[in-house]
């Protein structure tokens, strides 16, 4: 076992020590941690604040700070919930699910027998969604590989359970995804992960141009596979799973229209509860080559 393997496994063992606490305790601790992060004005706090300045400029300073605090508390809870999901058995995780909304859309999509694309925004606990999907059928998941190999070892231990195939988010990701869909499988992609230049197009997201992944519309257009949005939303004592059909526009030949429509639909999900969306992520760093455009997070949020 090399150093990366050792440290990755050590990180997983440490996560398991936290993850075995009851969900109620984890949520309480996560909320306290988020409150502390807000008070200390951490980098995540600054990013969330800047994002709210971008998407909701009309908010008063007081209302913005109230919302930033809610985002940080929800982020803290989500982090500790995720440690639980990553380190407990699938059966234990599935017991957290209280209701499944829109399951008829899921069944109808599978009945088409053309594969299924799950667009999973960074809303709620997407790690529990992975467990839910893999419990039903083989699930191919696109993920961003951590810079350090120990981090990749950790993620593969955390996510690499039965029925889960991990595909690095690289330029050749299309090939294994296409094969999975051709075989009638289900693939999961985050529609709101900022790609590298060349991996997407700019489209409005909460009123500001955001470089948006083009992989989902391209796969949908070429494969004919239906697209569903899916997310795990926190509720009392657990989570509710939601499935929502994507617009047929996503599978159309007009890529620009498809990407813009996808952003509109992801935005509608995020607006269910802004605190549950990952506003600690720098969504708008890469900018169009236009006058006046610059990285809105530099230098204050680094």
UniProtKB/TrEMBL annotation:
Keyword terms, alphabetized: Acyltransferase, Cell inner membrane, Cell membrane, Membrane, Transferase
Gene Ontology CC annotation, any one: plasma membrane
GO function terms (MF aspect): acyltransferase activity
Pfam families tied to this protein: Lip_A_acyltrans
GO biological process, one term: glycolipid biosynthetic process
Protein localization: Cell inner membrane
InterPro entries hit by this protein: LipA_acyltrans
PANTHER family recorded: LIPID A BIOSYNTHESIS LAUROYL ACYLTRANSFERASE, PHOSPHATIDYLINOSITOL MANNOSIDE ACYLTRANSFERASE
Protein's recorded name: Lipid A biosynthesis lauroyl acyltransferase
